[in-house]
Amino acid sequence: MAQNIYDTPAFFAGYSQLPRQTQGLAGAPEWPSLRAMLPVLAGKRVVDLGCGFGWASRWMREQGAASVLGLDLSQNMLARARHDTHDPAIEYRIADLESLTLPAAAFDLAYSALTFHYIEDLPRLIATLYQALIPGGQLVFSCEHPIYMAAAGAHWQHAENGSLSWPVSRYAVEGERRSDWFAKDVLKYHRTLASTLNSLIEAGFQIARIEEFAPSPEQIEAWPALAEELERPMMLLVSARR
């Protein structure tokens, strides 16, 4: 079973104050890039894995999706999602993505934002999503970039020219990585970029597009703290087709 850190009171209190939770999709700087990977949503049946507060689920219905199934392990997340959603075509369910089962050919789109790095057995989940999508269906997801995760807990280093560089620790060593983020020992799983992409290929997916998110000058001007994200990719964005 995946670690359910989001139902820890201290973690949930801190996490709820992030811009992407208080402002929704507008507070997620990678959202324009991720949104550009999505297909036309009119009439689509969508499964939203790690749906959180339901921001993307509601947005997809606004774009014409026929139905959205939002899945999350956190009772706190789903309570907030249900409170903020007034749409019978959106259903929220508790689900552990480590053991998820879905009916065959039930969805046109599988979507996930910043959830896959919590999954230990990602190949199993990807295979589950492959059989749950119709032929021609699409998987679009974001996750922590493996270079970013390999740098977690490390410290900025000064190069000879005085600039700052971001150290990468044990990139080739896959497996558990723990960090302190609103709570101690938040568990994530590091895998190389090749491992993630090969899991998609081996399941039968065709990779359509890859983005390694970096903020635009306009975003940095609006949110100066984002300048740090130019030092190493923070997020991996992937679109794949069944």
UniProtKB/TrEMBL annotation:
Q: Mind listing the UniProt keywords for this protein, alphabetically?
A: Methyltransferase, Transferase
What GO annotations for molecular function exist for this entry?
trans-aconitate 2-methyltransferase activity
Single GO BP term: methylation
EC numbers, comma separated:
2.1.1.144
Pfam families referenced in this protein's UniProt entry, alphabetically: Methyltransf_11
First-tier enzyme category under EC: transferase
Q: What sequence ranges are listed for the domain Methyltransferase type?
A: 47-141
Q: Does the keyword Transferase apply?
A: yes
Q: Which PANTHER family match?
A: TRANS-ACONITATE 2-METHYLTRANSFERASE, TRANS-ACONITATE 2-METHYLTRANSFERASE-RELATED
Q: What is this protein called?
A: Trans-aconitate 2-methyltransferase
**Which species expresses this protein natively?**
Pseudomonas fluorescens
Its taxonomic placement starts with: Bacteria, Pseudomonadati, Pseudomonadota, Gammaproteobacteria, Pseudomonadales
